Amino acid sequence: MGDLVEDVVVWLEAPPRRGTDTPARVFRRRGGSAANVVSFAALDGSPARFIGRVGDDPLGERLVADLAATGAEVLVQHEGRSGTIVVLVEPGGERTMLPDRGACTELAGVPAEWLDGIAVLHLPAYSLVVEPLGATARSLATQSRHRGALLSIDASSVDVLERFGPGAFRRLLADLAPDVVLANADEAVVLDLAGAPIGRLVVVKSGPAPVTVIDAAGGRTTVPVPQLATVADTTGAGDAFAAGFLAALAAGAGPTDAAVAGNRLAARVLTQPGASLGGDPAPPTPAGGHPA
Questions:
Q1: Which residues of 238-268 are buried (b: 16+ CB within 10 A; e: fewer)?
Q2: In the chain, at which residue ranges do the beta strands (DSSP E only) sit?
């Protein structure tokens, strides 16, 4: 549950030069952390549902149609203006995101039946730190637990955590008691997840270094990450890992095998522009409409 937006992905040929030109290639794609997780799970063969809000505009209609084309079920409210995120990708794959989330943050009044049949509710931190979306997310988390579903929360962004307050976010995690907390190494440091884990499982990703799975008792397991010859773009890799990990966990896999599944899916994304598996129905398109 969360964001469905347009990603404007800018592949820079060099670090941006302030006050002048920097050559680049520009791609437009469907984005949003929650939508990415859903699309990756669906494209990988798992049943997946997206819950959110988009604008009452042509972009919102196009985003919904694109996400549905992955095989996902898409349940959205249409109101306001659809969001856009500009993603600057430097040589080597590191990215900087400039978000304007638009209607996504206004989700409220979600029908209870939108949760029917779910096995896992996944909430990026983006879905928890602004209102009224945050109140909606907390309500759905409570309802989903009463239905017997697992709850997963992704720390999502150092900037988001620091703006919200690491202590406040840890208290939120303690209140929601998620079954899975996903974080990259920097986010784990901000939240002190290694020193004081919260949740049944804490999964810490460290780029090409092994994934660390920490259980509720503090026990640790490391899972190697497949090495890639080149990394084109890290956008969406964490969401792909979440999709692979959670789908495997819901299907009965143990945490180690689930991490292997997450790594496998993330590796496919790292060679593509934006949040893409490369074989989805929306191939990357540079601004102007010519195929990449």
A1: bbbbbbbbbbbbbeeeebeebbbbbbebbbb
A2: 5-12, 24-31, 49-54, 73-78, 84-89, 95-100, 120-124, 150-154, 180-184, 201-206, 209-215, 220-223, 285-286
Question: Domains of the chain: which residue ranges?
Answer: 5-282
Between CA 270 and CA 140 the distance in angstroms is: 31
Question: Which is the CATH superfamily of the domain at 5-282?
Answer: Ribokinase (3.40.1190.20)
* Averaged confidence pLDDT in the chain: 89
Q: How far apart are CA 176 and CA 170, in angstroms?
A: 10
- pLDDT tier at 201, thresholds 50, 70, 90: very high
Nearest to 32, CA basis, from 60, 4, 51: 4
Contact (CB, 8 A) for 114 and 254? no
Tokens of 174: 């303690």
When mean pLDDT is compared across 114-123, 210-219, 242-251, the lowest value belongs to: 210-219
Query: Tens of pLDDT along 227-275?
Result: 765 654 556 688 999 999 999 999 999 999 999 999 988 887 766 544 5
CA angle 223, 229, 231 (to 5 degrees): 85
pLDDT of 291 over the 70 cut: no
Sequential DSSP letters for 193-226: TTTS--SSEEEEEETTEEEEEEETTS-EEEE---
